[in-house]
Automatic annotation (TrEMBL):
<dbReference type="InterPro" id="IPR029056">
    <property type="entry name" value="Ribokinase-like"/>
</dbReference>
<dbReference type="GO" id="GO:0005524">
    <property type="term" value="F:ATP binding"/>
</dbReference>
<keyword id="KW-0418">Kinase</keyword>
<dbReference type="InterPro" id="IPR050306">
    <property type="entry name" value="PfkB_Carbo_kinase"/>
</dbReference>
<protein>
    <submittedName>
        <fullName>2-dehydro-3-deoxygluconokinase</fullName>
        <ecNumber>2.7.1.45</ecNumber>
    </submittedName>
</protein>
<comment type="similarity">
    <text>Belongs to the carbohydrate kinase PfkB family.</text>
</comment>
<dbReference type="GO" id="GO:0008673">
    <property type="term" value="F:2-dehydro-3-deoxygluconokinase activity"/>
</dbReference>
<keyword id="KW-0547">Nucleotide-binding</keyword>
<dbReference type="InterPro" id="IPR002173">
    <property type="entry name" value="Carboh/pur_kinase_PfkB_CS"/>
</dbReference>
<dbReference type="InterPro" id="IPR011611">
    <property type="entry name" value="PfkB_dom"/>
</dbReference>
<dbReference type="Pfam" id="PF00294">
    <property type="entry name" value="PfkB"/>
</dbReference>
<keyword id="KW-0808">Transferase</keyword>
<keyword id="KW-0067">ATP-binding</keyword>
<feature type="domain" description="Carbohydrate kinase PfkB">
    <location>
        <begin position="1"/>
        <end position="300"/>
    </location>
</feature>
Length: 316
């Protein structure tokens, strides 16, 4: 069985070829997107075995996603849905700041994931279950499936990592988002919030306060993303800030947090010291912002080592 199980909604993404509002763009490039699928691809490129669980429509987009996952040599646990479509999104091109993203995912195939789907996922030999807050935002059945999959992992002593990955427009209310995401985080061993997410979820953007909040709710390790500044780690080894690794050129910030998760999860699997885990996470995030795709910049082990050697990093 795989080292890591991931669960969520992969989507086809159409990225604008030129800058400007989405309604004025004429040409797009088709790519694969999705926070959890980005992490799956990143872990596989670092040599870890990965299984990705999802639900796809029986349509050209579903076929495209399945082929892309197979090309990345990711094992799949796919339920096929003949009645609902595969989700997709549009993303514009920007020279600075975050791009505009418009989703077509309401009532998608993945939004119909259920507890029955996750009960069918084999967990023997799995070391990590990585979850985000996105599936829980898609529908009530997805929310129940998220809880059940984490419960199954905890019953088997599998390490649960959780990235809030807030998508406010997908939730029925801000209150439901905060309550559910914090509850899911309380069930995880490793929590990966950003400072902006901390402001929303617990009322502070201070990394130490965010980390203390989730440690107080049961997390063994909390890694708070601070963007280019780096990250703050609160673990049984103590608390520390690890400096960021500046990117040569920022092209698109989407996917940086997923790259960070790749670094933390792979570092945990390889028993790296905390400082090295975070340095790796910072480096992968730095690499990812230099490309327009959400995942095509994710490095191999050799590319990652060369980047760290060239760009530097380290604990403070």
């Amino acid at each position: 069985m795989s080292d890591v199980i991931l669960f969520g909604e992969p989507m086809v993404m159409f990225v604008a070829e030129t800058e400007g509002p989405l309604d004025e763009v004429e040409n797009f490039t088709k790519l694969l997107a999705g926070a959890d699928v980005n992490v799956a691809i990143g872990l596989k490129r670092l040599g870890h075995s990965v299984t990705y669980a999802t639900r796809l429509g029986r349509d050209p987009f579903g076929t495209y996603i399945e082929k892309k996952l197979r090309k990345e040599q990711i094992h799949t646990q796919i339920t096929y849905d003949a009645e609902h479509f595969t989700g997709y999104q549009l993303k514009n091109k920007v020279s600075e700041g975050d791009p505009e993203v418009f989703y077509f995912r309401r009532n998608s195939a993945a939004s119909h994931l259920s507890e029955a789907d996750v009960e069918a996922i084999p967990l023997d030999g799995v070391r990590v279950l990585h979850m985000t807050g996105i599936p829980a935002a898609l529908s009530g059945s997805c929310r129940n499936a998220s809880y059940r999959l984490i419960e199954r992992a905890r019953e088997r002593g599998i390490c649960v990592t959780f990235d809030p990955n807030l998508r406010p427009t997908l939730w029925e209310s801000r209150h439901a988002m905060i309550r559910t995401v914090n509850h899911l985080a309380s069930m995880a061993d490793i929590v990966l919030p950003g400072t902006a997410e901390g402001e929303i979820l617990m009322g502070s953007s201070d990394p130490a306060e965010i980390a203390a909040f989730y440690r107080g709710r049961g997390a063994r390790m909390v890694f708070v993303k601070e963007g280019p500044k780096g990250a703050y780690a609160d673990t049984p080894e103590g608390c520390t800030h690890i400096a960021g690794i500046p990117a040569e050129q920022v092209v698109d910030t989407v996917g940086a947090g997923d790259g960070f998760a790749v670094g933390i999860i792979s570092g945990w699997l390889e028993h790296l010291p905390v400082a090295q885990m975070v340095e790796r996470a910072n480096a992968i995030g730095s690499i990812q912002v230099t490309v327009k795709s959400d995942n095509e910049g994710l490095p191999t082990r050799e590319e990652l080592a060369a980047y760290i050697a060239k760009r530097g990093g380290g604990a403070q």
